[in-house]
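Posted in: Protein Modeling Q&A

I'm a second-year student putting together a small comparison for a lab meeting, and my supervisor asked me to include a predicted structure for Pyridoxamine 5'-phosphate oxidase. I've never done this before, so apologies if this is the wrong subforum. The sequence is pasted below exactly as I got it from our records. If anyone can share the structure token output, I'd also love a short note on what stands out.
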Amino acid sequence: MDLSQFRREYLKGGLSRSDLKDDPVVQFSDWFSQARETDIADPTAMILATVSRNGMPSQRTVLLKYFDESGFVFFTNFGSRKALEIKENQKVSLLFPWLDLERQVMVNGIASKISTAESAKYFMSRPRESQMAAWVSSQSNTLSSRAMLLQKFNEMKRKIGEKKVPLPTFWGGFRVKPLQIEFWQGRKSRLHDRFLYSLDETGKWSVARLAP
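Accepted answer (user: helix_wrangler)
Welcome! Here is the predicted structure, written out as tokens:
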């Protein structure tokens, strides 16, 4: 299939240095608020890239649950591929593809587990069936059939009944502490605007414009 002529122009706007906040997390918050006000199906969706022990990268979409100056938080099974790769190599990359706005944000940083108390607080806010699903899914492991997964889920529902669903010891959150954050805005003729924030050893952010 030849896709060489499949293209479009990016015409929704530009990005200049004067538009940017000094703090990239504040800048991200502004862009995130704008994404939430659009018809983007899920502005919290982000692509998480990890690297295995042998250097093979892998990607998957996860959901951002909250963020602040300390980092960007998502949740997962600690036995999943992403969690096991983070255990071997804490350097990860996040990508927010807000294509309807002709924007993307890339975050490079260090992932580490959050506290059990913090994970429990979020876990208790999840829908009850999502809590039980966390118990029955051995994420990333081979599954014989969907019927088997549903059987385990229904057994869990019967076992728990009306009781409170406890936090699994193998499930929780990771926080990605940003070291670099890049903001990309599409422009006409592929002359896109790119600005990279980098954190120095003193904890201060610098900003550089990158060639598209």
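A couple of things worth pointing out for your meeting: The chain has one domain: 17-124+169-209. The first strand starts at residue 45 and ends at 51.
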